[in-house]
Amino acid sequence: MCESTPAYEKLIEEYRQAAVRHADETGWRTDGDLGYAWIFCTTDISIFQFTSTRSSEVPKQVFGTGPLEGILVFDRYSGYNKLPVNIQYCYAHLLRTVEDLGKKFEFDQEVQRFVASFAPLLSEAMRIHSLRCTDEAYYRQAHRLRDKILEVVNAEAVHLGIRNIQDIFRTQEKRLYPWASDRRVPAHNNRAERDLRSTVIARKVSFGSQSLAGAKARSVLMTILHTARKRLPGGDLESWFKECLDIIARDPSVDTYSLLPPPFINSS
């Protein structure tokens, strides 16, 4: 785990208590060696870690030994599977698997029927999170949609590619439908992907960190700055950061965490 500060550790504690959490990772070089940039985020927290590994030990250190309440949304990478938290798999990657099957077997009628019926259901499941409606209306529509997905999943199939996709939904049912019973939970991991976007851009420009110390500093600084940006009502990060630097210059012992804007109520 990266060298941390009290503020960094306290944000990890906040993350652990969130109702809905997201996680993702992407490549990031340090001193020329292949490594990874990790994001652990909510609506008002962004925790970055720039490490040399994609090992499950990284999220294990963030999540602790648990068990924790709430949900973690991610893209089915196995490094998160044994964390002490309930899971929602991202449908976007599953949708791509379905669409790729259709492209690979474009002249197979069974495959084309499966893709035509299943892909729109997965897309709808990802959109339903943004619906503006009463809880009653949401859950009525969500349960109806889940039942349609289950109908396709449990239908007889001959093609091995279809059966492989069906098996994912059959064997991982507990991790595929939390969105239907808790409207705070999306069936996609867009939040984490958005939070990583600036890192992907920086990677193209800087080619990563020049040293391990630089990677550790980037982990802490990006965590503080991205979390502050999410929490600032007016989004004036530059003014906030300047004010923080002035305070720290006057009192180097100040706890950076106390300078952060407060978290949202009932953060997810």
Q: Could you characterize what this model shows?
A:
By secondary structure, the chain is an alpha/beta fold. It folds into two domains: 6-87 and 189-259, Nucleotidyltransferase, domain 5, CATH 3.30.420; 91-181, no CATH class. It has eleven helices and five strands. Strands 3-2-1-4-5 form a five-stranded mixed β-sheet, sandwiched between helices. Helix 3 (91-104) packs antiparallel against helix 4 (109-127). The chain is globular.
In short:
Helices cover 53% and strands 10% of the residues.
Q: Which spans of ≥5 residues are poorly predicted at pLDDT below 50?
A: none
Largest sheet: 5 strands, mixed
- What's the CATH first level of the largest domain? Alpha Beta
The CATH architecture designation of the largest domain is 2-Layer Sandwich
Helix content: 40-55%
Q: What proportion of the residues form beta strands (DSSP E)?
A: 5-15%
Number of domains: 2
What is the total tally of β strands? 5
Strand order across the largest sheet: 3-2-1-4-5
Overall outline: globular
Mean pLDDT reading? 93
